[in-house]
Amino acid sequence: MNITVAGVKKEVADGLTVAQLIIDEKVETPIYVTVSINDDFISNDSFETTVLKEGDSVEFLYFMGGGR
After folding, report:
1. pTM, whole model, 2 decimals?
2. Which CATH superfamily is domain 2-62 in?
3. Which is nearest to 9 in space by CA: 56, 67, 68?
């Protein structure tokens, strides 16, 4: 099936979970990543059970703190 990951179209296996996509994409510090699918945020607790569908658009986001 075809999905878009960080703006890049990719062909992936049917039944791919968010957790497996994080591994496949070699996401650095996956414990701190926030994932959105089609602009909806997915809770970290559901990465293992959220299955991607044809045409999904996935973004990996890191929220940074700091400043004054």
Report:
1. 0.88
2. Beta-grasp domain (3.10.20.30)
3. 56
